[in-house]
């Protein structure tokens, strides 16, 4: 039974070190879980692009806006932690959002080392388009809402499992 599970796992995700006979299957790109997720992420970005272009946002900027719509006035560090982005990546995104009039960045009066990011009126108003974007994405997936929620739960579990197996030296933070 354990061997059956192991063979299925190797064939299903193309893990290295599969037993003899299954190495050909393990080497197929179509059997790689990582490629399925990579290509789905690429297709998500392509699907989001025309929707976000209409709003004047890139996909990474949209993610920043989602964070701020959930909690305005966060520090740059708090936004970066939620998005798993370092300040070197996040700062240019925030500068472009500020130049577009969607956010404002100001030093925290209690702690000058912290920069707080707040939505402007235009940034708050942009949230009115969120439902349209999310509905279009749901339709594009071909899944129903329950299927999409179940898939998200599985991907969240996958991400948590992968993160838990990284050692401190392997993490970006």
From TrEMBL:
Organism: Nitrospirillum amazonense
Keyword check for Transit peptide: no
This protein's UniProt keywords: Cytoplasm, DNA-binding, Transcription, Transcription regulation
Superkingdom of the source species: Bacteria
A GO molecular function held by the record: DNA-binding transcription factor activity
Subcellular localization(s) per the UniProt record: Cytoplasm
UniProt GO BP: response to stress
Residues spanning the signal sequence: none
Keyword DNA-binding: yes
GO CC terms, sorted: cytoplasm
Protein name per Swiss-Prot or TrEMBL: MarR family transcriptional regulator
Bilayer-spanning residue ranges: none
Domain annotation HTH marR-type: ranges: 30-160
